[in-house]
Amino acid sequence: MKKIRSYWVILLVCALALTVSVPAWAKDTIKIGVIGPMQFVQGKGHWNGAVMAMEEINAAGGVNVGGKKMKIELVQADSNEFLNVTDATNAMELLMTRHKVDFVVGGFRTEAVMAMQDIAMEYKKIFFGAGAAHPELCLRVAQDYDTYKYFFRAAPFNSNYLVRSSFLHLQFVAGILKSQLNIPNMKVAIVAEKAMWADPMVTAAEGVIPKFGMEVAGVWRPSPVATDVTAELSAIQRSGAQVIFTIFSSSVGIPFARQAGELKIPAVQVGINVEAQKDSFWEATQGQGNYIFTMNTYSREVEQNELTAPFVNAYVERFGETPTYTADTYAAIKHSLVTAIEKAGTLNADKLVEVIRDQVVKTPTGVVQYMKDDQGRYLHELTWGPGYLLGLGVQWQDGKMAGVWPNKFKASAEAPEISYTGMVDYIIPPWVAEAYKK
Amino acid sequence: MVFDIVITSLIKGSTYAMLAIGFSLIFGVARIVNIAHTAFYMVAAYCIFYTTTQLGFNPFFAIIAAVALVTLLGLITFKLLIAPIREHEAAVLIATIALAIALQEVMMILFTGDYRSVPALIPGFATIMGVKVFYQQLLTFVSVLVVLGLMWLFLLHTKLGLAIRATAQDREVANLVGMNESQVAMLAMGISVGLAGVTGAVLAPLTIVEPHMWNHPLAMMLAVVVLGGLGSIKGSLYAAFILGTAEALVVFLIPAGAYLKGAVALSIMVFVLLVRPAGLFGVQFEEER
Questions:
Q1: Could A220 and B258 be called an inter-chain contact, meaning their C-beta atoms sit closer than 8 Å?
Q2: At a CB cut-off of 8 Å and minimum separation 6, what does A233 contact?
Q3: Residue A165 near chain B (CB below 8 Å)
Q4: pLDDT one-digit tens code per residue, B173-216
Q5: Nearest-by-Cβ selection for A234 from B8, B108, B112
Q6: Model confidence over A344-353: pLDDT tens digits?
Q7: Domain hosting residue A209, numbered range
Q8: What is the dihedral of CA B90, B95, B100, B103, to 10 degrees?
Q9: Do B115 and A280 touch (CB under 8 A)?
Q10: Which of A8, A182, B123, B224 is most buried by its number of CB atoms within 10 A?
Q11: pTM of the model
C-alpha cells in the first residue's frame, strides 16, 4: 500500500514538473500580449492590428504548430507610456507574470520601449516593437545578442532611415518649389519636438540640408506637448524659410499644423508629423492642416503591393479609419511570427529567433528582411530601401490623405522608377505660391 | 524681433492672467487652494467641444452652457467637498488634486485620449506691426481687460463685493459683524470657477482639447499666482505678463531651446521667491497660522 502511494506521489510530481516546464504541452492557444497606450490612437492601432491578425488566423483554423492547430489569444496591456514609463514596465511585468504570454507586440515611446524591452528579454519572450524608432533598440541586439536577441523591430524602420526617407521627401518638395516658384536660395527651418528619437534626426538634418544646396534657417525645438506655437511660427516666418522640415510624433503636430495654416505662414511643411498620419487630423486641425506633407505607412488609395489593399480595406471596414504604423502589429503577428512558428513547428523562443532573423516575408507595406550590422552581427533591424520597405509620402488635400511619394522616384540615375498605385501630384499651398510668385 | 517679443508677451501674458485671476480670487477670499481650477477649465473646453461638434450648438450658446455647467459643478464641489474640510488647508489642497484627477479620468472615459479641437469664435488673424496675431488671441487679451473691469466694478461698487473684500481682509471679523462668511466663500468659488469656464471658452480654440490639457496651465497658473503674491489679483496680472515675456524671450532668442520656455518661467518664479518670499504683491499670512 505504501509503495502504491509513493508511486502516486512520484507520478504527481512528474506531471506537475512537466506542466510547469513545458507550458505549450497542454495548451490550445498561443497567447500574445499587445502592449501600448490604449487610451490613445497609437495603442488602439496596436490593438486593432493584432485583433485583425488574430481573427484572420483563427478563422483559417489557427496556427499549425508542429502538426497541432493552435488558436491565437490576445491579452491587452495598457502601457500608459505617454504619461508614465513605470506604468509601461508594470504592464509588461503583468503580461509576463500574471498572463504568462508567449509573445509580445507593441510599444510606442522609445524611452518606455527600452524599459519594456529589458523585461521581455529577462523572461526570454519574443517582443516585436511596433512604434519606437530609435536605433538603440536594435543596437542592443547586436551588442549583447544573448540577452536582446528576442527583440525584433516591426515598425517603423529606425530613425536613421526615417530621416533618410524624410530627406528624400524634402528634396522632392523642394524640387517642386524650385521648378514652379523659381526660388533660387531655398531656406529650411528645422522644427523638431524635444524628444530622444528626434535628437539624431536634427543633427543629421543640420548636416545634410546644406549638401542639398539649401540653407538651414534655424532649429526650433518645441515641447512635444506644446499647445501654442505661434511664437515659433512668427520666428520661422521672420527667418525667411520657405520650407519647414517637421519632426513630430506627439500632439504638438496638431497645433503646429493648425496655427501655421490659420496664420498662412508662407512655408510648406514636409517631414514627419505622426498626428497628420491619422484620419482624425483633419478634424483636429479644423481643416487648417490642408497641404501638410508627412511620411506615412498607409493611405486608403495607395497600394505598395498586392497585400496592401486587402489589409487597408478590411481595416477601414472593421474600425472605420485608416491604419497607422502601430497597426503593423498585424504584419508582425500574421506575416512574421506565424510564418516562423509554422516553419519551425514550435513555440520555443530560441528556435523561433533563428527563423525570424533570416526569413524574408512580404507584408502589406513591403518586404520584411532583418539586416545585420557592418560587422555581420544580427541587428533585428528592418531593411530599408527600394525592394524592401520604403514608406509613403502623403499630403492632405482638401480633407483627403493623398499619396504623393514615391511617384516616379529613382533611387539613382540608373535605378528603375518606383511609383505606387494610386499616387497623385503634390500641391503647393496657394498662399505659399502667392507669396513667392515673381 | 522686438515687436514679435512684445506682442507674443502680451498674448501669452493675457492667457496666463485669465487663468490666474479666478484662482487668486478664491484664495484671496477664502484661502482655498483650488488645484482643480484648471481642471474646470478643461471641463468647460470639453463641454464646448461636445455641444458644438456633437449637438450642433451655436458657439455662443455653447459657451453660455459651458460656463453655467462648470459654475454649477464648482458650487457643488464647494458644498460637498471643500466646505466640510475648509479649515484644513492641506486637506483642501489634496482634495482638489484628487478632484482634478477624477475629472481627468471622467473625460478620458467619456471622450478617450484622442485630441479634439473647437473652432475659433472669430476665425482669422490680424497683422500688428508685422506680427500675425489670431483674432482669438486678441479676444483673450480683450477678455482679460473686460474681466478685470467687471471684477473691479463688482468688488468696489457692490454690496457683495464689499462683503468679499471684507472677508478677504479678515474672515473672523467679517463673521462677527454678521456676514455669512461661508456664503461669501461659496459665491467667490462660483465666480472663480465661472472664470475658469470663461477661460476654457476663450482658450479652447487656441489649444488641443484632451484630458491632460489642465496640467501645463496648472503649473503656469501656480507660478503666476505665487510670483504675483498669493491672493493678489493685481500681482497675478503683473506676474502673468512677466512670465509671458520670459517665454517669448526664450522662443525668440534661443529657438533650439524653445521647449525650455516653461522651465525658464518657473525658474524666474523661484528666483523672485528667494528674494521676496511673499511674491511681488503678496501678503504675509503668518499671523493667521
A1: yes
A2: A256, A259, A260, A263, A265, B132
A3: no
A4: 888 888 888 888 899 899 999 999 998 888 888 888 999 999 88
A5: B8
A6: 999 999 999 9
A7: 160-296+406-436
A8: 180
A9: yes
A10: B224
A11: 0.81
